[in-house]
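To whoever is on call:

I kicked off a structure prediction for a single chain this morning and the downstream step that reads the tokens threw a length-mismatch warning. I double-checked the sequence; it's 192 residues and nothing unusual in it as far as I can see. Pasting both halves so you can look.
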Amino acid sequence: MYELFFEHFTKKVALTKEEEQQIQTYLTPKKLRKKQYLLQEGDVCKAIAFVEKGVLRQYSVDEAGNEHILQFALEGWLISDLYSFLTGEPASYHIDALEDSELVLISQTAHEQLLTNVPKYETFTRLTITGAYIAMQRRLTSIISLPVEERYMGLTSLYPDIVQRVPQHMIASYMGLTPETLSRIRRRLSSQ
């Protein structure tokens, strides 16, 4: 169950078999069915989730009932409402499964114990958060500086699996577009 998690971990930080076994004692497997919630807005986020199999999304819903997708997470990605996880305050986002999914959860308690007891976990966490910050900064830069066609082409080239596995109306939400606008962009790009 933890193969992909440790493959992902050891790409950032090498582990001995003993360290891998020690870390595994802190991990909890979880399965979600399609459309099942991992987290609902207003609940406190109690875990960081690593996706072993499936697709999840993180989103908010505005007063008009419109979804605003912040993130997708496929195999090998982490997902959480990090603010809620770290502060213990209510979550601002929902996280649910777009496909039947298998997750590896790291609870708040496990996270704190791993940071204290396994120095390589602290290094892994720092590298992961740094990478996530860089990705977020790149996304914000593209939103404010690139034409929407270039943003869509960037998404399709960087993350072809998302485009194949996620419904177009959700990709439109992620990009801050209406589904109709995304359809027009896709038609324009396919006719070039």
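Update from on-call: the warning came from a stale cache, not from the record. Cleared it. Sanity check on the structure: Strands lie at 28-32, 37-39, 47-53, 56-61, 67-73, 78-79, 94-97, 101-107.
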